[in-house]
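Because discrete structure vocabularies remain unfamiliar, we first show an illustrative case, written as a sequence plus integers encoding its fold.
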Amino acid sequence: MSQAVLEPGAAFERNMDLLRFATAGSVDDGKSTLIGRLLYDTKTIFEDQLEAVEAASASRGDEYTNLALLTDGLRAEREQGITIDVAYRYFATPRRKFIIADTPGHIQYTRNMVTGASTADLALILVDARKGLVEQSRRHAFLTSLLRVPHLVLCVNKMDLVDWDQKVFEQIADEFTAFAAKLDVPDLTIIPISALNGDNIASRSEASPWYEGPSLLHHLEHVHIASDRNLVDVRFPVQYVIRPQSTTVTDYRGYAGQVASGVLKPGDEVLVLPSGLTSTIAGIDTATGPVDQAFPPMSVTIRLNDEIDISRGDMICRPHNAPAVAQDVEAMVCWMDESAPLRVGAKYTIKHTTRTARTVVRGLQYRLDVNTLHRDDAADGLALNEIGRVRLRTTVPLLADEYRRNRTTGGFILIDESTNRTVAAGMIIEAS
């Protein structure tokens, strides 16, 4: 098998839109094969990579080139034929650049799926046409909704193994649509595919003449994501204060960070939290020079017209549109630590935007069963991969928004103070 291969970095130099998407699904639903197929069909793999995959496929006894091996990078994954860690891959087409997070399907690696989907613009859930919806399918759909991923695609895979039966596809589509109606899924697309054979991946397949929708790649290239960004609420968490130690530059003071939301321009009046002082923007600098405006996810340095005491963890926003300055927050958390459960009264370090503080768990309101959406009000803790609503009290105020309004200023992680391990990911519901 030979193929002309493009340089993967060449297309990335073009000024194109970027789509981040995460794949999810149960074990053996074909996630890694699908990603391998996308990389192969878009010609964004090196010849030596393809040769290595062909050799590995032959050594495993496969009668075909197993494209799943392009993403199953860990030796343990290749030996077991499963995905354990989140594998990030990059490819591009003439229309758009893509970053893929290939997440594990096993229940014990649900935390990895949360990690991969937390920054995604789109989630792609695979279902085996022979098995239909399973527990993990519903689990991943719920997590996608909880993480406020704007776009969801359900790929009914292995349709070739059910002879491209339209009734099988429609039954799965109807069942998933009914479940998604209980969740907050603003955009749902369902596509029948065969990742192994490439049907309905890069182009429409003749095997499904009854399917009138787009191919997967066409949908990924054209799904509208520009309006998903919050360009209304200005949020600029300060990461670093720049004071050059040069004798030629003596009066420069800039505040560096990444724009979380909103649009910033020179001359705009801004409010600095938590001090409450106001100023106007004197200029916005980047690594390539000054710019007329800054928007997410640009990394910039902001200069103000007034000398204000600003440090890491502070936030620049609008005077009449500010986040909550709160020490008490209610949040949904996904517990990621297998060595110790979350307990009421336990103390952790909380990392929120660029601000770090200590926090204590004041209460656990309920534990959520992600399969039935049942709330267990009697729960006294959260074990690995469990999700619940908690009340936290922090030592210093957080500058926070609700997660449904702003995924950046509404999200946080909890860190074990003794081991420095990340033990939970959280989404703020209310800050007061």
Q: What stands out?
A: The radius of gyration is 24 Å. The CA atoms of residues 233 and 322 lie 8 Å apart.
